[in-house]
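> @MW can you paste both from yesterday?
MW: sure, first one:
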Amino acid sequence: MSEQVKLTEQPTEAGSVVNGESASLERIWVRELADDQAVEGVFAVRERELRQRRNGGEWLRLVVCDRSGSIEAVVWEAVQEAYEVAAPGVAVHVRGRFGVHPQYGPKITVEAMRAATPDEFEAGDLAAGPSVAVERLEAELRELLETIQNPQLRALLAAFFAAESPVWSRFREAPAAKYYHQAYRHGLLDHTVSVAQAVSAAASAFPGIDRDVAVTGALLHDIGKTMAYNDDPLAIDLTDAGRLQGEIPLGYYLVRREVERIQGFDPDLAQAIFHIVLSHHGTLENGSPVAPATREATLVHAVDNLGGKLGSFDRIERALPDGEAWSRFDRGIDSAAYFSSRAA
C-alpha cells in the first residue's frame, strides 16, 4: 500500500483509492457547508473510530477538518478500505453529501474516499492556527518576561522560556486543547499569552495581589500541556502521559523540578507558584486537586476560565455556516452561542 499524505511528514506518493473516484481541486470549506450540499474536496482526518451496527456489521465514524472548522463524517460502504485510508493526521479526498439531521446533527455521509495527493491541497488550508502571527505572540511573551522583577522567578521562567530550553521549543508548537479552545498548532502560546496579559492588567486593580507571582503563575499554569498532548496539528490527542497522569500533575512536576534546581529558592515563593499550577482549573471535578486559596491563584483561575470560554467562541464562529447567527449547544461554553454581526 502506498503512503498517505501526512502534513507533519514529507509526502511520497499518492495513496490508494476507494471506489475509484477522481479528484476535485475546488476548495470546499467546512464552515460554508449547507444542508443537502454535495461535497467533494480534501480534508484532514482528526479522529477515526470503527463502530458496530446493530446487525453486526461495521461503520466508520470520522472527524475531518480544514482551517475553518471540523465536521463529523460517516462511512457505511467499503468501511475497511476507508479505515485504511483515513488514518488520523492524513489528508483525504472525500466525495459525499452534507446534511443536518434533526437528531444526530450535521455530518458528511461519505460515498467515496481516497488518500489525497500532494498537489491537491495546501497545508495551510487544512490546519487551523492563531489569529495573529506566532512571531508577534512570541514577542509579547518576551515582553511579559521582562516585567518580572523577582530574580528567582525570572530564573524559573528562563528554565522554560529561554530560547535554548527544550521545553520552549515544544511550548511554542503545542495546542492548548483537543477540542474547545485554541485547539491548533501554537495554541498553547496563544492561550498563555492572552491569560498572562489579562492577569498582568488586572493585578493592579485588586489590592494585595503580588503581580510577579500572579503573572509567573499565569505563564506556567498550562506548562503540563507540553507533555500531555501530541505534536500532530491535524490529529490532536492526549499522550499516554496525558491520559495516565493528567496535564496538571505533569505541570506541577515540571515546575517543581526546576524550582529544586535553583539553589536557595524561597520555599514560600515556590509554594505560591505550585498552588497556582495545581488549582487553576478551580475544582476537583475539573481536574484541580485543590481549589484556589490565594488572591493570585483566584485571579489566574478566573482569567484562565474566561480565556477558555472566549476562545471557544472563536472556534464556534469559524464553524458556523454563513448567514447563521446561532450555533448549536456547545460543551465548551455550556450554551449555544449568538453572534449579532451575523443576524439578518
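MW: second:
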Amino acid sequence: MKLSEFIKQEEFASAAQKALLNVLVSSSWVMSELSSMMNEFSITPAQYNVLRILNGSHPDKLTCSDIGDRLLDRTPDVTRLLNRLEERALVVRQRADHDRRVVEVGITGEGRNLLSRMAPHVEATQERLTRHLTEEERVQLSHLLEKLRRDQ
C-alpha cells in the first residue's frame, strides 16, 4: 500500500519527510506482523531478540550490559526481559566467578529448543513480508537502510 493511501495524505513537505514516514510505517507493520507470529509461541519480539543474542554467544554467557548493547530496540529494561525469560526457564542467570557483582546470562536448552521450533516460522514470515522484492532489491534495501543510519 502506498504511504499516501495509508496515512490519507497526498502532499509531503519534502522527499526526506516522505522517506522517513515510509520507514516508520514499514517498521510498525513489520513489528506487528512479527509480534503476531511470535505470539503463537507466547514470546515478544524483544524476548526473541534476547534469546537470539544469547544463542549467538552460546556456550559463552553475556552480562546484562552486553545484551543491552546488542538489542535491536535499545530498551533500558533488560532486567524485566530477563525476568520473564527466566520464569519460563529459557535463560539462566548466575553471579560471575571472577566478580560476584557481575551477573552473567546464558540460554538454556529449552531456550535453544524454542528458537529451533520458531526458526521455520520466523523465516516464513520474513519471506512473506519481503515477497514483493527481488533478492537484489532486498540487498539494496538493506544497503539503503544502513546508509540512512551512517551517522548513528
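> thanks! The CA atoms of residues 133 and 139 lie 10 Å apart.
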